[in-house]
Amino acid sequence: MVKFFIAEMIGTAILVLFGCGAAVLMGAHIGMMGIALAFGLSIVAAAYGLGPITGAHLNPAVSLGAFVAGRMPVATLVNYVAAQVVGAVLGAGLVYLIASGQAGYDLATNGLAQNGYGPGYLGEYALGSALVFEFVMTFVFVTVILGVTQADSPVALAGLAIGLTLTGIHLVGINVTGVSVNPARSFGPALFVGGKAMADLWVFIVAPLAGGAVAGLVHRMGITRAA
């Protein structure tokens, strides 16, 4: 369990460091396309580097979906989620440490690529849009993960498929919520930024967990599972 914890912690830190780091450190230069690719490539890197140990969930919604689908016991779920939260905080802390070395950087103004919605946040989408987006896209993401990692799937391509799916989700939704589909990814930056980021955090916990749980249930029922 310690080995699992460390692998999930490192993997989630990589996700936040690559994805949020791209937004904070290079966003003005690479744009939303570059940020989307950074999040997707982080998953590819972690999947192939750490996947053989834990499956590289890196996301409480993914782990919950796997639990509901009957693929992991509750003790492993708790271990994974704890590691993912710690890893996300570590990753966000590293991004902040690096960003704070730039002249003119201000945490309150520039942030850490925290998720949000409503007035003053990117496309200023309403709460309803944020909830729908996060629920639906997490459902899609976890459905893809459960599908490409089942017994009859080409496992060698699973990491690439998952990474490309996350890239696509970001291409659709960065302007809506900054894209969470991952409560840990949202918690790490929000913890440092505070204020509105923490106030909005419940959306990025509730909606992704609900989407992941429904994806797991649908898979368990055999609707999205190979016969």
Terminal CA distance reads 31 Å
Number of domains: 1
What global shape is seen?
globular
Which range best describes the helical content: under 10%, 10-25%, 25-40%, 40-55%, 55-70% or over 70%? over 70%
As a percent range, the share of strand residues is: under 5%
As a whole number of angstroms, the C-alpha radius of gyration is 16 Å
Low-confidence stretches: none
The helix/strand series, from N terminus to C terminus, equals HHHHHHHHH
CATH topology: Glycerol uptake facilitator protein
Q: CATH superfamily membership, which one? A: Glycerol uptake facilitator protein
Number of helices: 9
- How many runs of DSSP E, i.e. beta strands? 0
Description:
The protein has 227 residues and is mostly helical. It has a single domain (2-220), classed as Glycerol uptake facilitator protein, CATH 1.20.1080.10. 74% of the residues lie in helices and 0% in strands. It is built from nine helices and no strands. The two termini are 31 Å apart.
Structural descriptors:
mainly alpha; globular; 9 helices; 227 residues; Glycerol uptake facilitator protein
Task: Please outline what is shown here.
The chain has 227 residues and is mainly alpha-helical. The chain is 74% helix and 0% strand.
Topology diagram in text:
Elements: H1 2-54, H2 60-68, H3 74-99, H4 107-110, H5 127-148, H6 158-177, H7 183-193, H8 196-200, H9 203-220
